[in-house]
Design a protein that fits this description.
Elements: H1 3-27, H2 31-34, H3 39-48, H4 50-79, H5 85-120, H6 124-141, H7 147-163, H8 168-183, H9 192-213, H10 217-231
Length: 232
């Protein structure tokens, strides 16, 4: 395995970990913030759990976005020079795009929530209005829908399926996850994001194993072919 493949495998495990961390914290400590019925409640939760909210945002956006880059490149390398090459290249672009958008969302949310916290001390109404703006922009960039992530995982899964770059059943899971991500753009179906997140935890974990431990089927075939010709 090349260093990029191993780095991609580690990155996939970290990506899965960020999803697990994000989900667990959202269901426990920050559940009140995530489910807050209005800006006033959200700001109150922010003031109470500011440190955890900052850590949560950093992990699910900045850390995730950073590890997405080597993962996208490692998966692209797996399809290079195969029938899945074209889709693999397009997928790599969407992977880097997803990383960029998610990191941008994290930066906006991080700075915005600090500003909301400071403003809440002197002007509660203004803090609530600012929170609504930050939340809307942050969700628009990442979290409110999973369109870019869905497109990326579908392209990667189809390209790896064609190239037999990872076990094909893993690619099928990726396509299903990507489909769930695309559904989040449909009004009223944003809850499909939970399905996307759960399936991506599974897919990231499996891809990490594949990148770390398994050679692509097409490379194994290429390695065997010279021996076959020699024996003939």
């Amino acid at each position: 395995m090349t260093p990029l493949q191993k780095l991609g495998g580690v990155s996939a495990f970290v990506a899965a970990g960020t999803f697990v961390f994000g989900l667990l914290v959202a269901l426990t400590t920050l559940n009140g913030y995530v489910t807050a019925p209005d800006p006033a409640d959200a700001v109150a939760e922010l003031l109470e759990h500011g440190s955890m909210l900052a850590l949560w945002n950093t992990v699910i956006t900045i850390v995730f976005g950073v590890v997405m880059v080597p993962l996208a490149l490692a998966l692209r390398d797996r399809t290079a020079g195969t029938p899945g090459d074209t889709l693999g290249r397009i997928g790599a672009v969407f992977g880097v795009m997803w990383a960029t958008v998610i990191i941008a969302a994290g930066m906006v949310i991080g700075v915005g929530l600090t500003a909301v916290s400071d403003l809440a001390v002197t002007d509660a109404a203004a803090a609530e209005s600012l929170w609504l703006a930050v939340d809307t922009v942050g969700n628009g960039l990442g979290g409110g829908n999973e369109v870019i992530g869905g497109v990326w995982v579908i392209l990667v899964s189809v390209s790896t399926w064609i190239a037999r770059a990872i076990p094909r059943w893993m690619s099928v899971i990726g396509v299903v996850a990507g489909g769930a991500g695309l559904v989040t753009m449909v009004p009223g179906l944003a809850d499909a994001g939970a399905v996307f997140g759960l399936l991506m935890i599974v897919w990231f974990s499996l891809v990490g194993i594949a990148l770390w431990c398994l050679r692509p089927a097409h490379s194994r075939t290429a390695a065997v072919a010279p021996h076959v010709r020699a024996s003939a």
